[in-house]
Amino acid sequence: MLRLLRLARIVLTVYRFGLDEIVAASLKSAWLVRLVRAVPVGRSFREPRGVRLRRALEDLGPIFVKFGQALSTRRDLLPADVADELAKLQDRVPPFDSELAVREIERGLGRRIDEVFASFERTPVASASIAQVHLAVMKNEPALGAWAGREVAVKVLRPGMLPAIEKDLGLMDVGAGLVERLWREGKRLRPREVVAEFDKLLHDELDLMREAANASQLRRNFADSKLLRVPEMYWDCCRDNVLVMERMRGIPVSQVERLRAAGIDIKKLSRDAVDVFFTQALRDGFFHADMHPGNIYVGDAGEDFGRWIALDFGIVGTLSESDKNYLAQNFLAFFRRDYKRVAELHVESGWVPAATRVDELENAIRAVCEPIFDRPLKDISFAQVLLRLFETSRRFNVEVQPQLVLLQKTLLQIEGLGRQLDPDLDLWKTAKPILERWMQAQMGWQGLEDKLRREAAQWSRLVPQLPRLLHQALTDTGRDDRLLAEMRRLRQETQRRNRLLLVGVTCLGALVVMLAWMFIGMPLPGR
Description:
This protein has helices at about 1-15, 20-25, 30-35, 50-60, 60-70, 80-85, 100-110, 115, 160-180, 185-190, 190-205, 210-220, 255-260, 265-285, 320-335, 340-350, 360-370, 380-395, 405-420, 425-445, 445-460, 465-475, 475-520; strands at about 115-120, 125, 130-140, 150-155, 230, 240-245, 250, 285-290, 295-300, 310, 315-320.
């Protein structure tokens, strides 16, 4: 009954925001179109379809908001106007009651809150659909070691989130099945796969231990960096539903005037953002994949002055060595305007069918990318470039790589940050030397030296055995003689069987001929 009521509310919301018109325009069946359009209208909408869809998702609640956010990254599936509007969705909801938060923290830690914290602020400093954050101070006890008396941030999941999520995900899966069967482009949109991706993403965010592990890995990757600061996790107080980490102080990256007033070099900050992004993606293959302004601060004092500060590590992306190699070569070929190499890489990687004509793909990529070079960032929309590349990809049956979807989303977020900080930033010129250094580290003499060092441990075990193995290979002729003798025996046995088979077939043939002659030559009865 609850699911039916929820479904009824979804249908009413679709009608109220005029989304049924979008549905009718995309249905396969003519009678379904007539049925949808038979509903009394009496409505007029001045807002574009993307705005109405965004407002409908906001009306349906936080889970649908997060689904819209995830969907906005799939620019290979959506029209540009819809994807751009969905990207504006803000995951901001009113905080839940602080007493509930305290009970949830105590349930997770198995201790009273005053046994862990010297002070705990009941009013949250941040609130989203999945969790909210409170500030606290650890107790000043020797047993806490370096954490004694430290300021911390405590993240706690909203109570009862999993059942609510499961209900909405079930409805989304049903809706995805209907879209696949009834919409003209249902197959191409792959709605079931999109919902499955969202399901995994959401369940990952519900596990705060996973988020703490992501933060710990990113912190280790940038331990010696002067560009990015990642808070330390207090593992003794991290659970599936509670996360305690070092408190970070800084200025939200969206407050540009405050950054300027603090004396921070805005142009350097924007260049550092590009450096941090490509370092995460290409050097480590492990990157923060939710870099919207709410999750990024800039240090304004001490060692963190002018340094990026990352928060919220629920969504990270990973790339294999093969992915990193092809991406780096693609980016570098783009920057050098070597479109033929870009096309060849797509074929070599299997992203397009092997029979694709490289020259045709090269021309299509050139038509998309050539107009954007030698222009400042303020005149370039990477969203539009990606959209046109996706349209080109569909023409050539390019398979969308799931592991690259988060990378595309993060690149668009970097674009937004860059425009906000320094509209004159040239992303191409900033990223090119970073990519060239990485390529040298991977494929030049430095890369060769690094690979030799990694293999040295294996060689230290194998090299001492080489003389013995070589001696065995040169002297152990007896095994070869036995093998040759066995091969001769098998060949002789095969020949003997073949001769016997030939004699048998010959005798059988002679018997058949003799019987046939006797039958034909005998007088028939009655003659």
